[in-house]
Amino acid sequence: MPLSLWMSLFAVCVIGAISPGPSLALVLRHTLGGGRVPGIVAALAHSLGVGFYALLTVLGLGALMARFPLLFQAVTWAGAAYLAWLGIKALRSGGAAVLEAASEATTRRQAACEAILVALGNPKLILFFVALLSQFLTSDMSLFAKVVIVLTAMLTDGAWYVLVAVSLTHSRVLPWLQARAHWIHRIIGVMLLMLALRVVIGFP
Q1: What is the CB neighbour count within 10 angstroms for residue 167?
Q2: What does the alpha-carbon distance between residue 186 and residue 94 come to, in Å, rounded to a whole number?
Q3: In Å, how far are 11, 102, 134, 148 from 141, measured between CA atoms?
Q4: pLDDT tens-place values along the chain, 204 residues long
Q5: Three-state SS letters, the chain
Q6: Rounded distance, CA 180 to CA 56, Å?
């Protein structure tokens, strides 16, 4: 793959990663709930889900899913239901005491499972890869080039959310967030519920 083409691919992946959505809310919630390590675990697990959809796209299965309305609708509704459930959980935890960075309010396993499910249940990822990532695919593309596409999408996503988790747990940032954890949980809960509603009613 030419360097210029890879740079275009990288730019597209960066735009996709930094776009606000349920993934950012999830990483924030687990970082506040358990500190830096659960936040990083959530970031890396989410990147695995992104890598899975990137793999489906290079194999042609992403486009196949998008062409079958019932399959796509099932993923959409399942993703919306899961986002709503996470939103309710965040709202219910909003009244808890201020969280300590080393608390067990959220575990690494919980962070990993929720991050993968949020990634796999996000229909915007399917549309993103089918609409944007597919433009870099050709019928005669080598296996190496396809691997580069998958790894670029996965590593870009993981690097961004790891950066978010590390930044949130900075010695000056985390105490400020922890002091306002009560309201931040409520804001995250509302965000997740609104995102779930947006998925149900449709999105651009």
Answers
A1: 13
A2: 5
A3: 20, 47, 12, 11
A4: 778 788 888 887 887 787 667 788 788 888 877 778 888 999 999 999 899 888 888 887 666 666 777 766 776 677 677 667 767 876 776 544 334 433 445 778 888 988 888 888 776 677 677 666 666 777 677 889 889 989 999 999 999 999 888 887 776 666 666 666 667 667 767 876 876 777 677 644
A5: CCHHHHHHHHHHHHHHHHCCCHHHHHHHHHHHHHCHHHHHHHHHHHHHHHHHHHHHHHCCHHHHHHHCHHHHHHHHHHHHHHHHHHHHHHHHHHHCCCCCCCCCCCCHHHHHHHHHHHHHCCHHHHHHHHHCHHHHCCCCCCHHHHHHHHHHHHHHHHHHHHHHHHHHCCCCHHHHHHHCHHHHHHHHHHHHHHHHHHHHHCCC
A6: 40
Counting every residue written for the chain, the total comes to: 204
Amino acid found at 52? F
Angle at which helix 69-92 crosses helix 108-120, to 10 degrees, equals 140
Burial grade of 10 (CB within 10 A; 0-12, 13-18, 19 or more):
middle
Distance linking the first and last C-alpha atoms of the chain: 31
The Cα 63–Cα 126 span in angstroms is 8
CA gap 157, 86 in Å, rounded: 21
Q: Are 185 and 86 in contact (CB under 8 A)?
A: no
